[in-house]
Structure formats: C-alpha cells, structure tokens
Design goal:
The structure holds two protein chains of two kinds.
Chain A lengths: L3 E2 L2 E2 L8 E6 L2 E7 L3 H9 L2 H7 L6 E3 L10 E7 L13 H20 L2 E3 L7 E4 L2 E4 L5 E3 L9 H17 L7 H4 L6 H7 L8 H16 L12 H17 L20 H18 L3 E4 L6 H8 L3 E6 L2 H13 L5 E5 L25 E6 L3 H7 L4 H11 E8 L5 H7 L11 H9 L2 E8 L6 E7 L2
Parallel strand pairs in A: 11-12, 11-14, 12-13, 14-15
Antiparallel strand pairs in A: 1-2, 3-4, 4-6, 5-6, 7-10, 8-9, 15-17, 16-17
Chain B lengths: L1 H19 L12 H22 L1 H17 L1
Classes of the chains: A alpha/beta, B mainly alpha.
Chain lengths: 459, 73
C-alpha cells in the first residue's frame, strides 16, 4: 500500500490542478477549481472521448466523493484502477519507447482539438492491459497559438535521453532514471552518447543542441518567440520520427537463451509445467508475481488461467522478449518488468515517498519462484532464513522450486568458487520456509533432482 | 557595405535585446529558457524544410526556368 497523508497519495503533490487520493480502498482524483476550465474543455472538445476510446488516456467517471482537503475542489473523478504501478526504470526499451510514442500521439491529437499537454512526465504513463496509457487526466491545458511546447524539456529528459542512451550506448543506462527523478539531464546524456549519435539530425537537435542551449541560456529569462501551429506540429512530428527510429535488439545473454541450455529434458520440462499448472489451479488467485521469470514461459501459464501476472526478471533482453511476445500475441494480463530481486526498486523521490518500493506495491496473492532459489542462496550468498522471510513479506502464497546441489546448474555456480554452502539443502530449505509458510504440497519433478512446493503464508 | 554591416549589427542587437526581455512563466513545471530557444531554432529549420516541401514543385520550376533562360540568353 502506498504511503499517504490523510488519504492523499504522497506521490501526488506537485500539480496545483489537483491530486490523487484513496478512499475506502479506491483511488480518486480531485480536480481543483483552478483547473475547472481546462477540465471542461477536455470533456466538451471531444478530446477526452477521442483519447479514452482509443485506449490512450485512462477512462474515468465523475464521483460524488470528497477528499480530506475539499477546500479548493471543483469535481472528483474516479479513474480506472491500474493493477500494478510500475516505473520507467523498471521498463525495457520497448516499453519506454511505446510510452514516448504515446505521449507524442496524445499531444498531436490534443493540438488538433485546441489543447496541449502541460507536462510530459514519464510518471504520467502506466501500463494497463499491457499497453501504455496516460493516467494524468489533468495534464491538458488550452493550446495557445504561438507558444512553444512547455513540456518539451521534460519529454526530452524523461523519454528521449534514456531511449537514445539505450539505443546508442547500453540499455542498462535507463537505470539513470532511478537517480534523476526529473529525467536524465541532457548535458549528461550529451557527454555519454557516442559521436555517431550526432549524425542523426533530429537527435542532434533535440538532445545535443538542446543541451547546449540549456547550458548557454540557463536562468536567463526569455520572451517566448512565436512558434506557429504548423511549426509546433513539425517539432512533435520530428520527435516522433527520432523516437520511432531508435532501436534496441535484445542480445543473446546467458539468460535469454536459458531454456535452450538447462537441466530439463523436454519430458521433464513438460512435467514441471504440469505441476505448476496444477498448483495454480489450487491457488485460484487474481494476481501473480512471477519472480525471475526469464522470458515469461510460466507467467503465460498463469495468464492463460485468467490471472493478472507481473513477470519480473533482471535481464533486459529477457524482459524485452517477454514484452515483444505480449504485443505479438495481444496479451492483456502479463506485465513484464525489469527487476533485480537482490536489489529491488527502492522508494524514491521527495522524502523517499513519491515512487514506491517493490514491497510497498505488494503483497501479491501468489508468487512463483521457479529456478530461482539457487541464484539467491548460492550466486548471491543470501542466507536461507532471510530468503524465506523476504518471500513471506511479498506474497501470501508461494509456488517455489528447490534446486539441489546435485543439479547441473548449481554445479555450474560452484565451479569457480569454494563451496561454503554446507547449509544449502532440501532439509534446511524446508525448515527455514516452514518458519513463515505452511507447506501444503510438494512434488518431485521426474527426470531431475528438483522439487516443486506449494506453500501458504502463516497468519 | 558599411551601411549593410551597420544594419546587420542593429538587427542582431535587436534580437539579443528581445531575448533579454522576460516573458511570463505560469507553468508549474520549469521548462527552462534553453528549451524555448532550441524550439525556436528547430521550428525555423523545420519551417524552412516544411515550406520547401510545400513549394517544392514551384522551387523546381523556378530553377528550371532560370537555367533554361540562361541557356537561351
């Protein structure tokens, strides 16, 4: 559950137009009187209907509910709930690119109907049914002919800079979004991008020249020069062109080819799938967190049963492949997320309360921890009791695979290091997890030395 | 020549002065002066490109006439 002050969600305080609050478990957005004119224009101009029908803007209903600060309130709306809040440093390249293209498409449609986005924060985008959607209904203002785009700098720092860095340098650089809460500073992007990025004319203009202009004109007040509507739309179109052109191919990493190179024969892999499927049938939960999901093979088993799945993996290539599969197969209930379980997203922002940590967004009904335990205990030296405690915090039910030392994957982990893991055994696994969970079922996977467990957290 | 040079200096100075005059900033985010300036630059570059695209056939014909005129001349 996210932190809040009197129900007002703490990430929602910067915009004087309104704020998000929680009441009786539901999320609402208060629209302040200062925003009433823009809100009515959004609704009357047809822009809201256009964007909501196209699945670009979160749909909402007006609601007769009051926040704890109703003083300046005009109206309250209830937007459709987002099942899992995620952040740009948890997205793969493809997700960030689609989010950027969403903002530009919305801005173009808005201009056509006399409005414009007053901010282009990447945190205004969330994934709903596996597609990016704008959640800040109060982002729109009346378009004033002749003025430049006020959100342009934010768009370049929140979207273009990380995408360019991922495309031209290294996808892992999108993690800089975790450090820079208002997007990657353009002078930093400028210094990190290789020379060949300057050969892309639009990238040169929107990142490199932009960085230079920022440096040169910093804190100097300027009168807003006239940029007519055609030129404005040409700028938006050039941004769309440069973003569309940025590409990142998932590389063949140790993880992206994992299923080709494992301990399973085809038969034993099928048996594992059947056991997991059987456990999921018992569980009958709404939300599943698949931890260390790789390219999402088991996430899709849960999704096919109608569950909402968040599919976590630390490898960028795996998450990218998982996302590509979701788009290709039009999956609406799998959300691939980039996450290092040994260093999960912390709470960041003002007072460390604007963006939630992983645990604050849980617990999940059910978690899958398949082919994972040995990476935590052996590769990462984590004590079994601490692993068990962690899992008890993030889920109510757990489907977990124990991978013993006789397994070839574990042998591989121990090849170049001393085996200091005398406590790593099935007995100690069952003992430590029994402190936090009741083990309901355990099944051995024929053809392997591995065992699958279904457990429920103790009250 | 000197007059043209003077005119150019005055023209540039006018633009520089106009850049110093503060505008109103009512947005709740800080868009930054540099971000405004670069949009003006990009708009003028793209504007030129857009205009060229719109009037491309006219531009082509102009140059055709120019060169065919010279040949005849």
């Amino acid at each position: 559950m996210e932190p809040s002050d009197n129900g007002v969600i703490t990430g929602s305080f910067r915009d004087p137009s309104g704020f998000v609050f929680r009441e009786n478990g539901k999320v609402y957005r208060q629209i302040n009187k200062s925003y009433s004119e823009n809100y009515e224009q959004l609704m009357q101009s047809g822009l809201y209907k256009n964007l909501a029908d196209a699945g670009l803007l979160i749909p909402h209903e007006e609601a007769p509910v009051h926040s704890s600060e109703p003083g300046g309130a005009y109206k309250t709306i209830r937007p459709e709930a987002i099942p899992f809040i995620s952040y740009p440093y948890e997205w793969c390249f493809g997700q960030l690119k689609d989010a950027a293209l969403l903002i530009l498409e919305i801005e173009k449609k808005a201009i056509e109907l006399g409005m414009s986005l007053k901010d282009a924060s990447v945190y205004n985008v969330q994934f709903l049914r596996s597609k990016p959607v704008l959640i800040d209904t109060l982002s729109f203002e009346k378009y004033r002919q002749g003025e430049p785009w006020i959100a342009y700098k934010q768009f370049c720092q929140h979207f273009l800079a990380p995408l360019a860095l991922a495309s031209f340098k290294d996808a892992r650089l999108t993690q800089l979004l975790r450090i820079y809460i208002d997007g990657i500073p353009l002078d930093l992007a400028n210094s990190l991008l290789p020379f060949r990025s300057r050969l892309n004319p639009y990238l040169f203009l929107h990142v490199h020249l932009h960085a230079k202009c920022q440096e040169h004109f910093e804190n100097k007040p300027v009168s807003k020069k006239n940029i007519d509507r055609t030129a404005f739309l040409a700028i938006i179109d050039s941004l769309r062109s440069v973003v569309s052109g940025l590409k990142w191919r998932p590389r063949k990493t140790a993880w992206s080819g994992y299923y080709m190179d494992t301990n399973y024969s085809a038969d034993s892999f099928m048996r594992k799938k059947n056991i997991v499927s059987g456990f999921l049938n018992k569980v009958n939960s709404e939300t599943v967190w698949d931890l260390g999901s790789n390219t999402g093979v088991f996430s899709r088993i849960a999704a096919d049963k109608g569950m909402d799945v968040v599919s976590f993996d630390a490898d960028h290539s795996c998450v990218e492949k998982n996302y590509a599969e979701c788009i290709e197969k039009k999956r609406t209930n799998v959300l691939p997320i980039l996450l290092d379980l040994t260093n999960p997203s912390p709470a960041i922002g003002w007072d460390n309360r604007e963006r939630l940590s992983l645990s604050e967004r849980g617990p999940a009904d059910t978690a899958l921890a398949l082919a994972l335990i040995h990476h935590l205990a052996i590769a990462n030296n984590l004590p079994m009791d601490k692993i068990a405690e962690f899992f008890s915090k993030i889920c109510r039910r757990l489907i977990i695979e124990f991978v013993p030392k006789t397994d070839s994957q574990v042998k591989r982990l121990l090849i170049s290091r001393e085996d200091i893991f005398s406590c790593y055994s099935q007995e100690s696994f069952e003992k430590e997890f029994s402190e936090f969970f009741d083990i309901c079922s355990a099944e051995h996977i024929d053809g392997t030395d591995r065992k699958l467990y279904y457990m429920i957290r103790k009250k | 020549m000197k007059n043209i040079k003077n005119a150019a200096v005055i023209f540039m100075a006018f633009h520089l002065i106009s850049l110093i005059i503060p505008g109103d900033a009512h947005a709740y985010i800080n868009p930054g002066s540099g971000s405004f300036i670069v949009q003006v630059i990009i708009a003028s570059l793209l504007g030129g490109a857009v205009t060229a695209k719109l009037y491309w056939s006219g531009i082509k014909n102009f140059f055709k006439r120019l060169f065919s005129g010279r040949k005849k001349g």
